[in-house]
Amino acid sequence: MRYAIIGAGLAGLTCAHDIRQHDRDATIEVFEAAERIGGKLFTVPFESGPTDLGAEAFLNRRTDAIDFFNSLGLADHLVYPSGLRSLVYSGGHLQTLPAGGAMGIPGDSRDFEELLGDEACARIDAESEAEPIDWEVGQDARVGELVRQRYGNEVVDRVVSALLGGVYSCTADDLGMRATIPQLAEALDELAAAGEKVTLSGAIQKMNSRRNTITKSSAPSPIFATFRGGYAELYDTLAESSGAQIFVDAFISGVNRNSDGTFSLKGAGEGNYDRLVLATPAPTTAVLLKDIAPEAAQKLQAIELASSAVVGMKFDSDEGLPQNSGVLVAADEPEMHAKAFTLSSRKWPHLAERGGAVVRASFGRFGDEALVRAEEDELVDMALDDLQKTTGFDGRAAGLSEIYVQRWFGGIPRFDKNHFDVVAAVREELSTLDGVEVTGAWAAGVGVPNVIADARDAAQRITHAD
Ligand SMILES: Cc1cc2nc3c(=O)[nH]c(=O)nc-3n(C[C@H](O)[C@H](O)[C@H](O)COP(=O)(O)OP(=O)(O)OC[C@H]3O[C@@H](n4cnc5c(N)ncnc54)[C@H](O)[C@@H]3O)c2cc1C
């Protein structure tokens, strides 16, 4: 059986690896448009050591992902964060990010007084007395819209957008709840299904009490983990174990279906393929499906992308850098360019071992690419200025020994309201098209464990299709 996989990001490489597990004799060819594999996983070989400038962690509580890494022989390569807290820069100064709640949405105003002020706190505490939310089980809402309606603007602009922006490169106003905070949507469903009064604070409190029960009954484990040598350890291992032929600089511009049911590719690849996996971002997948599944392609066009830029910096000294994992910048903070700093060598003990400091500055949100397109020198200057402004750490004086600017145009799908309804509709359209699978962050959800799980399912289906 001959397989073509388009895209050598995490989804494409995981799929290639699993196809090999299911079909030992398969001929697997992977076509990657860029000059390297890994996609949004990208470990840059800094002189001081490998440094991730795409994804830099994964959810350690996803046992399916951990089992997968173990099966790849990578169990000993996993490392864990220091557990230092993150800060939020709001109102011109640094404040501790309150714990609890869901993506910064509180169940009550405790610990939020300094960040939000008395008026906003009073609104949060009175929310349970307001008219109930008109919520139907299974419905979706934009996070920003709902939280603004119930709690006011402060909590969205100072906390929720900062937290969501760090993960999704979008403000809360551009994101759907079911795709980004699914536990909150489920808690709202539960209140509605039980005929109880549906409020935001009630749903958050429901989530918190469930989380406390789970935490009490299970041994504490770090929430996040990563690979000691960066994500390259994962994508290089997957590429090798797949036994696939991987073609880089191989841009695929279209796909044909032949009369015998096989596929041929435009742009690279030779001859016909029995099976096809599209592991590309949603807009590209739409283009590639255009001729073989026009309805699916049309539905996929609803999914847009958000861009960002990451400036990775290594300093000779870490003196004066706060003892925190990171700094999020409130979305309403004037005269700031960076949206977040990961104080990587504070967050990850294995990076602290290198001496000095490693910091990642992140820029850009959905709908605003100006910063992502800024000149490289300008981005570095903004990163250093904003880092000093927020933390007091003078990066120039600390000795900036290594810099890498990575732009992620269309780096992350925008997970809008009803996102997974679109995904389900696309999958439904494709269910009648034999021998084709689609996978990737847009179909799976943004996190590395989600992408792996979806790609593994795709490999299972495509090797058992007939
Ligand atoms: C800055 C950033 C930070 C992140 N941080 C985290 C994190 O800390 N933790 C976490 O869990 N997740 C994180 N993520 C998300 C995670 O990295 C992604 O969800 C995941 O890597 C996506 O994998 P993928 O294979 O679906 O897509 P991609 O990595 O985008 O792979 C798709 C591949 O297809 C190729 N391609 C596109 N078009 C064509 C074509 N026409 N022909 C051939 N090839 C093509 C692309 O070049 C690319 O290599 C982050 C993402 C970004 C951008």
TrEMBL record:
InterPro entries hit by this protein: Amino_oxidase, FAD/NAD-bd_sf, Protoporphyrinogen_oxidase, Zeta_carotene_desat/Oxidored
What is the taxonomic lineage of the source species? Bacteria, Bacillati, Actinomycetota, Actinomycetes, Mycobacteriales
Q: What is its main location?
A: cytoplasm
According to its UniProt entry, what is the function of this protein?
Answer: Involved in coproporphyrin-dependent heme b biosynthesis. Catalyzes the oxidation of coproporphyrinogen III to coproporphyrin III.
GO cellular-component terms in the record? cytoplasm
Q: What class of enzyme is it?
A: oxidoreductase
* Pathway info: Porphyrin-containing compound metabolism; protoheme biosynthesis
The record's comment on protein family reads: Belongs to the protoporphyrinogen/coproporphyrinogen oxidase family. Coproporphyrinogen III oxidase subfamily.
Superkingdom of the source species: Bacteria
**What are its cofactors?**
FAD
The GO annotation for biological process reads:
heme biosynthetic process
From the Swiss-Prot or TrEMBL record, give the protein name: Coproporphyrinogen III oxidase
Its EC number is: 1.3.3.15
Q: Which GO terms describe its molecular function?
A: oxygen-dependent protoporphyrinogen oxidase activity
Reaction equations catalysed: coproporphyrinogen III + 3 O2 = coproporphyrin III + 3 H2O2
Q: Tell where it localizes.
A: Cytoplasm
Q: Where is the Amine oxidase domain?
A: 10-462
What are the entry keywords? Answer: Cytoplasm, FAD, Flavoprotein, Heme biosynthesis, Oxidoreductase
